[in-house]
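Hi F.,

I've been meaning to write this up properly since the lab meeting, where we talked about keeping a consistent format for the predictions we share between groups. The idea is simple: the sequence comes first, exactly as it goes in, then the structure tokens exactly as they come out, then a line or two of notes. No screenshots and no reformatting. I'm using this chain as the first example so we have something concrete to point to.
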Amino acid sequence: MKLKNVCVTVAALVLAVSMTACGSSSSTAASTSEAASAAAQSEAASTSAVVEENSASSQAASEVSSEAASEVSSEAASSEAAAESAEYTVYNTTGSTVSELYLYEAGSEDKGGNLAGEAGLADGENVVITRDVEADKQGDMTYVLEFTTEDGSTQSFETLHYETTPISLKSVDATAGATPIAFAAPEQ
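Output, unedited:
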């Protein structure tokens, strides 16, 4: 009977620690530890030696669970603080120079600076555009990518999300499809 009680306690301890290590919330781990403690104490009531073992195991499980939950919470907080940047590598595959290039937040009237530069972005060249937004706002962020070629044709893609991706700008003639861009680097 003692062996069975010890096995139940150890199994509950392993479950509590593994749930915490796998990212369950600390309240789930604490509940599991409390359940393990309650189960162990009710089964161990018949023998004081078993009660002492279960109490020590339960206390150890609580300490291990608390430490693991604290580490998981710290890791989650640091990953939120270290937000990833969005990076767009924009390739000019229009066949002409892109004289104006803007990437701005959808709904904004301010386009920001011309990302093509003073000389423009020659056909075959590329530019890397990076954006940084707080981690909790990244999923809601939508950009407009707008470009004008040297012949005065202006095109835009209005639902660009916060991501890292290559973008090939297409000429007006090549945009017979749905969008003036392709989410791919040009073939070499």
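Notes:
Residues 19-58, 68-81 have pLDDT under 50 and may be disordered.
The first strand starts at residue 86 and ends at 92.

If this format works for you, I'll send the rest the same way.

G.
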